[in-house]
Amino acid sequence: MTNTEDHIVAPTPRPVGWRELWIKEDWWANWIGLGLVLLSYALFLQGDSLRWIAVVPAQWSNISDLGADLARNAPRYVAQFCAWTLVFSFAVRAMGFRLSAFLPSFAFLYLLSLVIFAIGRWDQASQYNLEPPLVALLVGLALSNFIGVPKSFDTGFRVEFYIKTGIVLLGATLPFTLLLWAGPVAILQAGVVSVITFLIIFFAARKFGLDHRFAAVLGAGGSVCGVSAAIAISGAVGAKKEHTSIAITIVIIWAIAMIFFLPLVSRLLELPAGVAGAWIGTSEFADAAGLAAATAYGNLANNLENIPGTGDQAVFAFTLLKIVGRDIWIGVWAIVLALIATTRWETNGNDRVPRMAEVWWRFPKFVLGFLAASLLVTAMTSGYTLEQYEREVAPTLVGPIRDLRSWAFIFCFLSIGLTTRLRELSSAGSKPFLAFSIGAVINVILGFLLTVYVFYDYWATLGS
User: Fold this and answer.
1) Is residue 12 part of a domain?
2) How many domains, the chain?
3) Are 22 and 47 in contact (CB under 8 A)?
4) What predicted TM-score, i.e. pTM, was given to this entire model?
5) What angle (nearest 5°) sits at the alpha carbon of residue 91, between those of residues 85 and 92?
6) Domain span at 86
7) What is d(CA 306, CA 268) in angstroms, rounded to the nearest whole number?
8) What does the pLDDT look like over 227-261, one tens digit per residue?
9) What three-state secondary structure class fits 306?
10) Half-sphere exposure of 385 toward its Cβ, with a 13 Å CA cutoff?
11) Which residue, 57, 28, 36, 323, is CA-closest to 175?
12) Helix (H, G, I), strand (E, B) or coil at 174
């Protein structure tokens, strides 16, 4: 998927001492993500914010409004592009890539991402499911498979680097205090769904004869946060790159299908907004797709008398279960599976006992950045109530980080599309899709039973 001809330094199979801290992709994702968190906090203490440079297109209804907004904020976009280019250039050069190959590629990626971000900010985008990450994936696939992109541009389409940076920033938007505010119901329901779905997909994949590592990547993609989890677990267990690509593609297919299916069934059953949002949170396979589905159903609740509740309840319930409750399992599965992979799956039928140090070598270090970012923001916001957090902290401290995270995720999804050749995925056959689909169907049913029958009263009155 990624061109390696422009790489200067040959891959190093084992750590190289302290140099690992500045030549490895995971560590650079940590430095960039945590650096942005600390900078945001420093500005927050001064009554300022990263908002100026964390610019995103404003919502628009006609092209003239969009053009005026882009023209008005042109200096901010130029500054943001320069900032992203600067930090990513330091990283890719330290990792051994030529800037002459990276810079034009990233410029193309940023400009296309801006267009995609703008499409997603159209006031009718949610009605047509034009969420930026999904649009980015589809545009990238179209360009890659039907038009063609210069192979040399692959240097700037650094899928894993962008998603790892985004995951570290995701940690900053998920302080552990949110787990307390979410309450035991959300945490319990999310945990049950995550564990059961993972085990079903994993053992189904093994039954079909798929490799342990591939099965783990598929299981994580279906049980936690599709793309992010698939990449994290791929690094933890040492899966092949094509396994990650296949898992991501399957996740996206199911995520898109669920955008339409879940709100439709919820509407037919006239589920309260909070109940539908919770079901979407336990049954969607990607944050962007799930948010689109929850928002769509929330809009129905705001406009139809036969659907109880409000749009805010649908989105809040989804957030508690998917973004807070399930996404936190990325770190849990990464730790557990890194340990299992190095102590159980790598014996290769012989008596070799892997050294425990291999767990550290294999462990995806950006998960540490995810946890560190969450802990930092937890400490920064520990003195605030949920109401104060939403009113004072979220807009100025967490909001800009969330917007920068959105940029990183769009870079990632667009890069996935631009480096994915559909004809190469066809060689995987139907077994990965079938294994994932078995778990996906059970996931939807289990989420429905827990939401509608076990915890109905909690979700129906959420926030009341």
Assistant:
1) no
2) 1
3) no
4) 0.74
5) 85
6) 20-460
7) 10
8) 778 877 887 787 887 888 788 888 878 887 888 89
9) coil
10) 2
11) 323
12) coil
